[in-house]
């Protein structure tokens, strides 16, 4: 149980994150992340391919009837990928801090269980989900204590033999002080009860934006170079140690 001081710290961090969301909505060109944008399409194709491969390798690829949760699903998140992988809409669950983003996702997926709330105190019982997805969520949490609380909750709601699908920055973004990369060592420290393969992914966005519109082939060749990748994809299984 967290103290009153810890809860105040959590609330302050959540308020900061929401303020940053609003700033990005005002100042960041939404076309950067539109799927018709070649760099965004490259990013999504690469992360999805690597995630599916690791899930299959670990024997935890989700199937219809498996309850799956996304932490910080935003206005869409990985929910569309999960449906494309064969899950039913009723298999989808999520928790999102931002009510405006959540409202968009609820319109798209009316039969999914998509909630607005605090990921450091999730409403589901222990072991509720076969798969939990955390994608570009933890890098937005600058407070280390808040990160640890959310990580502990994520691990708690994973069923024995289930897994965490992780996708997030592994390096800091020098142009954005409101995100912080999470490397392999910190990822392992956040989830000490989980284990599994971790792979680098995603061509550095400035390179992807410059190259992908000109040559898809060249962009894929560059993405094959690990030192040019800015994110990590991981599948960490509960009970794998």
Helices and strands, with pairings:
Layout: H1 4-27, H2 38-57, E1 68-71, H3 79-84, E2 92-96, H4 99-108, E3 113-116, E4 129-135, H5 144-157, E5 158-169, H6 184-190, E6 194-195, E7 198-203, H7 205-211, H8 216-223, E8 229-238
Parallel strand pairs: 1-2, 1-4, 2-3, 4-5
Antiparallel strand pairs: 5-8, 6-8, 7-8
Helix pairs in contact: 2-7
Architecture overview:
- This protein is α/β, with parallel strands linked by helices.
- The chain has a single domain, classed as Vaccinia Virus protein VP39 (Rossmann fold), CATH 3.40.50.
- Helices cover 40% and strands 21% of the residues.
- It is built from 8 helices and 8 strands.
- Strands 1, 2, 3, 4, 5, 6, 7 and 8 form an 8-stranded mixed sheet that branches.
- α3 links the parallel β1 and β2.
- α2 packs across α7.
- The chain is globular and about 50 Å long.
Number of domains: 1
Fourth CATH level, the homologous superfamily: Vaccinia Virus protein VP39
What's the number of extended β-strand segments? 8
How much helical structure, as a percent, in the residues? 25-40%
Strand content: 15-25%
Oligomer: single chain
Number of helices: 8
CATH top level label: Alpha Beta
Order of helices and strands: HHEHEHEEHEHEEHHE
CATH structural fold name:
Rossmann fold
User: What structural class should be given to the helix and strand makeup?
Assistant: alpha/beta
Primary descriptors:
Rossmann fold; 21% strand; globular
